[in-house]
Amino acid sequence: MKKCLIMIALLLVLGAMQAQVTVTVVGTDGTSHEVAVDATGEIYFGADYMAIMPTESASQMETFQMDDVRKVLFSGSARIIDVRGAELTIMPNPVAESFAVKGIGSEPQLLTVYNIGGTPVLQGRYSDGERVEVGALPQGIYLVRVGRNVVKLIKR
């Protein structure tokens, strides 16, 4: 079921043609969590997490561990598009002090690091291969977002 959910999820990105889509995440414990996603919002899926950005300019990202998700429901108007794997690479990962990002491109792009609760903890404009200093962050799991790409980062 988990592999099927991930496979289906990798084909979904919301691009609502109307005002918004409601995403309902049903947990394995039976609880439901609804998130209203507008036309600029995005949903990201990793091997072990799902992240929902309700609007393009939202500073808060909702995250869910895939082991805790039984199903994801969409209501409203959603457009399905083909999603390619993340082109973003972080090296090294796990990281202690700093990491380099590959796949950004030659022009500096906005890079945001989110804690596992979805709160931004670091943000800046970086170019391909440029070092991102994370030594001040506590150990844990983070999500790194550049454009539509989101990659899991482990800070040790």
Question: How does this model look, in words?
Answer:
This protein is mainly beta and 156 residues long. The chain has two domains: 75 residues, no CATH class; 67 residues, Immunoglobulins (Immunoglobulin-like, Sandwich), CATH 2.60.40.10. Helix content is 5%, strand content 48%. The chain has a four-stranded antiparallel beta sheet, with no helix packed on it. A three-stranded antiparallel beta sheet has the order 2-1-6, with no helix packed on it. The protein has a three-stranded antiparallel beta sheet with strand order 3-4-5, with no helix packed on it. A hairpin with a 3-residue loop joins strand 3 and strand 4. The longest helix has 8 residues. 17% of the residues are buried. The N terminus is likely disordered.
Q: Helix- and strand-based class? A: mainly beta
User: How many extended strands?
Assistant: 13
Shape call: globular
Largest sheet: 4 strands, antiparallel
What's the order of the H and E elements? HEEEEEEEEEEEEE
Low-pLDDT sequence parts: 1-18, 80-86
Order of strands side by side in the largest beta sheet? 10-9-12-13
Number of helices: 1
Radius of gyration: 16 Å
Task: Please state roughly what percent of the residues sit in beta strands, choosing from under 5%, 5-15%, 15-25%, 25-35%, 35-45% or over 45%.
Answer: over 45%
Q: Please tell me the overall pLDDT.
A: 80
Helicity range? under 10%
Number of domains: 2
Cα(first) to Cα(last) distance is 31 Å
Topology (elements, then pairings):
Layout: H1 2-9, E1 20-27, E2 32-38, E3 42-45, E4 49-53, E5 62-65, E6 69-76, E7 89-91, E8 98-102, E9 109-115, E10 120-126, E11 131-133, E12 140-146, E13 149-155
Antiparallel strand pairs: 1-2, 1-6, 3-4, 4-5, 7-8, 8-11, 9-10, 9-12, 12-13
